Every structure is written in structure tokens, then in C-alpha cells.
Backbone:
């Protein structure tokens, strides 16, 4: 559905990081140039944080301003919808906390150990600059996270979905497509890169 731009990455390294890391915020650079973020504070939400790799990479790139604020939302616990946590939730959470502490960015990061639908309503509407959705990959939860997040985005803010097409067309892809279809008059699709979809609120 989407074409990925061929643009070289600027490297991000997490030398003290422990645990699994997937793509980092440098995957966003070709679509969201750093220059438009680095001289101002931003408010950022990440739904589905796991060991914290992407969150830390955002802190050291888009959220460098000392007044930037980052919110991490995750259950870090056993749940039938999250196979990667089964029997390992406490260990992943402990490792996440250590990663945050050793990152040097802990003072900017607010941790919400809860489900996203219970946390998102606590934020003011139109208060966030960037929201990254990488939580439950079932389409109904992807769509719910997107709808809840859209209200919290500022005009001009960007919603980033992870794993478009992951697991086939009936998981994240279906939820993301449903959101794009329903909100087509209020959004601009900025593009896609390595299965991540970038949407700007008009």
C-alpha cells in the first residue's frame, strides 16, 4: 500500500541498553526531520514500550530540549493478548526501569504501568506533539488506540503506527486502514518507512 523512501539513516546507539530492541527513532528521520523538533520542547506518548529502546532513542533525538516530556504506557505483565510477556512481565519491567535510569533521561520520562485506554483519557486534548502506537496488534485495539490518541494530538502533531502488515492483513494493517479511512478528512498521511506509518493531524 505504501512506498518507503530510500534515505540513509543517522545512527542511534544505546550502549547501556539491556533487552530486545527493534527499530529506533532514526527510522523516522527521513519523514520527520529532526530540525523541526530540536529547538523546542515536545510532549510525546509511547503506547507499548517493552524494554524502552524506542523511547530512549526518542529522548536522545526528538526530545532533546530540557523541557520535553515523554510518557511511556505499558502493562509489563502477563496478559493473554501479549504473548511476549507471558511469565516474563516482571523481568521485562525491571529491565525497562534499569534502562531508563541508566539512559540519563529519567527526569523527562513519566511511566504509566497500565493499559492505554485507562491512561490516554488523563491527558489534555490537543496537548501532544508525537504519539507512537505499538501496543496490542489486534485491529480493534490498534483502532481504539488511534482514536484515543488522535484527540490528544495537537494540530500538526504526528501519529506513528508500528508494524503495518505485521502478521498478515488482518492485524495491525486492518486497524490502521480503518483509522485512515474514517479520519481521511482530518489527517494527512505523510508516508511509510519499514512498516511504520506516519499520519499528521490537520
Residues:
Amino acid at each position: 500500500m505504501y512506498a518507503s523512501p530510500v534515505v540513509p539513516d543517522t545512527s542511534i546507539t544505546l550502549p547501556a541498553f539491556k533487552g530486545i530492541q527493534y527499530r529506533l527513532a532514526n527510522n523516522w528521520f527521513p519523514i520527520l526531520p529532526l530540525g523541526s523538533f530540536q529547538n523546542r520542547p515536545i510532549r510525546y506518548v509511547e503506547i507499548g514500550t517493552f524494554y524502552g529502546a524506542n523511547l530512549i532513542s526518542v529522548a536522545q533525538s526528538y526530545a532533546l530540549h530540557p523541557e520535553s516530556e515523554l510518557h511511556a504506557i505499558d502493562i509489563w505483565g502477563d496478559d493473554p493478548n501479549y504473548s511476549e510477556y507471558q511469565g516474563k512481565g516482571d523481568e521485562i519491567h525491571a529491565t525497562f526501569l534499569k534502562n531508563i535510569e541508566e539512559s540519563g533521561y529519567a527526569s523527562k520520562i513519566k511511566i504509566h504501568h497500565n493499559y492505554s485506554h485507562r491512561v490516554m483519557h488523563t491527558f489534555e486534548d490537543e496537548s501532544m506533539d508525537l504519539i507512537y502506537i505499538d501496543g496490542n496488534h489486534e485491529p480493534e485495539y490498534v483502532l481504539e488506540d488511534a482514536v484515543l490518541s488522535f484527540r490528544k494530538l495537537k494540530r500538526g502533531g504526528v501519529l506513528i503506527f508500528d508494524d503495518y502488515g505485521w502478521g498478515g492483513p488482518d492485524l495491525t494493517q486492518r486497524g490502521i486502514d480503518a483509522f485512515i479511512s474514517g479520519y481521511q478528512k482530518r489527517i494527512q498521511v505523510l508516508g511509510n518507512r519499514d512498516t511504520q506509518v506516519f499520519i499528521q493531524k490537520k
Notes: Residues 1-9 have pLDDT under 50 and may be disordered.
